[in-house]
Write a structure and sequence with these properties.
This protein is mainly beta and 459 residues long. 0% of the residues lie in helices and 54% in strands. It contains no helices and 37 strands. The strands form nine sheets. It has a seven-stranded antiparallel beta sheet with strand order 2-1-4-7-14-9-12, with no helix packed on it. Strands 3, 5, 6, 8, 13 and 15 form a six-stranded antiparallel beta sheet that branches. Strands 27, 29, 30, 32, 35 and 37 form a six-stranded antiparallel beta sheet that branches. It is elongated.
Amino acid sequence: MIPMEKIKSNYIVSALLTGFVFISAVSCKKDTGNMELATNYPTTPEIFIDAFSRDLKFDAWGKVTNFDIDYAVKYKGTASMKISVPNASDPAGNFAGGVFYTYMARDLSGYDAVTFWAKATQATTMNASFGGYPDSPGTFTAKYKVALDVKLNSNWQKFIIPIPDPSFLTNEKGMFSYAAGALADGSGYTIWIDEVKFEKLGTLAHQKLSIANIATWPTSAGFIGQTYTTDVVEAVNTPDGVNVQVGVPSSYLTYTSSDNNVATVSDAGVVTLKGKGSATITVKLGDLTATGSITLTKAVPMAPTPTVAAANVISLYSDAYPNIAIDTPKWDYVTNTLSTISIDGNNILSFSTFSYLPITFNSINASTMTHLHMDIYVVAPTSANQPVKLILKDNAAGEKPINNYAAGLTTGSWKSLDIPLSSFGLASRSALVFLIIAADPQNPKMTDLYLDNVYLYHN
């Protein structure tokens, strides 16, 4: 998808008896204070049928000269739209895109699809859509936007973009958009598009609704407050037997949760974990229904919020304080699969197959610091009173480990460690350069854990 901030020019497309003239759009404002709001919008289905429909505007992005009218090549009638996709090194832009929209909204609720014919000089993919348009400088409305990637070749083909629920399109300005980039080898090509319109086909069949990313939802453990999106897909069988899938924006959908104490779901389709138990998230598109379940046997709370004054802290990893720059290098025998979980601006390090974690940093003077703090949550395996091994290195005094530190880590709960720096027995803490956190080699040893709020402090 091409970002709309790359829009470079704005044109009004007017169909004249003698041809097509592109006129630069001039921004103007009318005093609408005493105007009566329109309630009956035109139902015009045509976008381009040998000529542009009335009141149509065009915004181009990428190489803004990519668009033209072709009277020699067409699927039907007298003309087609010609899109010249530039090569990858073109200084004027390495992709071609544009959006057609209207000054006055249309009532398109009587149609069930946007259809068009297209071909290209090379086999390629073009993104086509409806329902998106620029509504003011620098902003783009896409509330009911539906997009489809279509595969073009040198033959004319008809493409169908199904409308998930036409009843929502009673006041729509976004008619049609296209976007295409250079081929994999960097070369450009030409696309022709013709007979673009909204249609009432009445033959779209076997509609199905599904949550495409349900595999990413938690099946046992999740953080309280953690959120998950619902990427909803509608599948439709078109008259030519092709099964078309399109993503459905949340504005077409309704969402419910069977148990808001386990998980809630917003109007935007964002699922938020609340606590242990099972909940079914139901998504509806008209009479079509998709469901997905969340079962939390472990509802993980956030780590305790630090209370030490920032002036007394050197923070390595915590959203409660400014952090110094650190690295977590992949030294020999480090087996960690490391990721970051972000919840409302709070970032937590998540480990699987944990072995040990080196945290390196530029030399810091920690002479006035008295303690090392960290919060650890053991996810697996099941264990009680799990010890850890810690190593602190100072360039002026070597490195010192604490073996089998009796942390009392227990699977399924946060443990806050406040370790006196004197326990390391370093002669100096004036040039600290790394900290290592390791699983103690007992059986079983912790393999999956969360880590947060790692910092040095003084009382």
